Every structure is written in C-alpha cells, then in structure tokens.
Amino acid sequence: MAVKTFTELATVSASRRFGEAPSFQRKFVVEVDSPTTTQTAIVNSCGVQFLQSHPEALYAKAMNVSVANYNGSRWHYEVTWDYELPKQANAQASPLVRPDIWRWSTGGIQVPALYYYDGTVVKALVNSAGDFFEGATTDISTLQASISSNRSTFDYALATLLTNTVNSDAFLGSPKHTWKCSGISGTPQVEVVNEIETRYWQIETTLEYRPDGWPLQLPDVGYNYLEDGTKKRAYVIDPDTSEKVPASNPQPLNTDGTLKTGAPDILTRRVHRQIGFSTYFGVPK
What we know:
Layout: E1 3-8, E2 13-15, E3 23-32, H1 39-44, E4 61-69, E5 76-84, E6 101-112, E7 115-118, E8 121-124, E9 137-151, H2 156-162, E10 165-167, E11 179-193, E12 196-209, E13 216-219, E14 221-222, E15 224-227, E16 230-233, E17 235-237, E18 244-246, E19 251-252, E20 266-269, E21 273-275, H3 277-281
Parallel strand pairs: 10-21
Antiparallel strand pairs: 1-3, 2-3, 3-5, 4-5, 6-9, 7-8, 9-12, 11-12, 13-20, 14-19, 15-16, 17-18
C-alpha cells in the first residue's frame, strides 16, 4: 500500500480577472501499488504542502487539494492543488501563530444634547433663561474595531475583567477614555493542516471609539446648593413679590456648591474602569 510514481501533468490552468487576485492550478497523476493506499499518502507524494508558493507565481499559495480516480483506474489518482493569494497577510499554517485580523465599521449613538455650534464656537445648549432643554438628545458618530484572534484557551476571567473598560492612556492615536471594550466572545474551532490537528478558540473582541470620550458629561446643576457649608433649597426670585421661591428647574452651581449665575458648567465623571489597551489588545499590523 504505497505510492509507486507521480507525474505532474503538463496542463497549465490559471484564472485572472481584472480587480481580483489570480488563481492557479497544478495537477498530478499518482500511481499506487494497491487501491487501498491512503489518500494522505497519495497527496503527500506530490511534494506540495499547504501555503507553499506556486513555482511561477510566488505570491500564490497552495490553499486547497482534492483527490479523484484518474480515468476510472483503481491504481491511478489525480491530485489537484489550487493556488490562491491568501486573504490574510503573513498567512501561517498553524492557526495559533496567525496574526490578529482587525475590521472597522462606523455607527452612531444617541446622547444628551449639552452643546451646540455657534459658527465654530461651542456653547452650552440652554434657553434664554440659562436652563438646559430637558430630554434633548443628539447623535454622535462612533468607530468600531472588531478583532478576530486565535488562542489556545478562552480566559473567561480576563474577558470579564476587560469588558466595559476604557483606555487609560493614548490608544491608536486617540486620547485616554475614548475607547471602550464592548464585549469579548469565544468559539471553539478545529483545523487539520499538513496532518496536524489543532484545536483552539476563535476570539472576537469589539472595541468602540467615541470622539467625546466615554466618561459621563453632566450639567453642574441641582435643586439644592451650599451656603456656608449648609445645604439649602435652590430658589428663584418671584417677579411679582421679589421673594425667594423654590426653583422648579435645577439651578447652575459653582464648584464649591454655591449658586452660579449664567450657563451651567459641565462635569465629567468616569464610571468605567481603565486599563492599558495596547497591553491587552495590541495594534493593527
């Protein structure tokens, strides 16, 4: 049960289409001494392995192989190798050493409307009395990075730790707190390449970039204020009686808690844990 000889057919097969990567095909006829010779032995006898370069087009790699009887003979088999340009740069036979794949998409989310553009100047979005418009929202653009990676195990604890964290320092050219890890998933996979079985986890990580940052932006307003360290009810002046009456809307506050005149300031409060994104997610290659 062994291979006696093999011959590469002179037939040349190639396909080219404008705007697409070309593909090539090589065919071999393998003669065996027994019809029970294994297909593995038949395929390996041709001296070609996955990801091996085409002899003429070095950029094309062996990506697919098939075996069939040759002209109906039980002692002759036709082995066909298909060569293509790998879609992934630096393609590797073992899935565990392949580089991560980054994919990009844009989207939008709805957030409270706190600012508006007066020409090129950004101003607080308030009415003529200096009150915010309650319930006003706007859309902002976001950028999503989806990272596909292969790992030998799925670290559930690490995935939980990283989910809903923001970047603690600059990441992909953006300032801290502008990227958030939205989720991590893992799916078991198996491949057999060059007779080597490899079981691994395909990890999908989603990162989301928000230009204005993920910390909450809150108007510094309240129904109460501080006066000499004592909390008091915010008030407005009744135009008819000139007396103080409880305010029906939250009133602007200074940083020390006293009442402020004019448009409210915006407080920034980070509610997500921060980590070094480059350490855990790397960068596109």
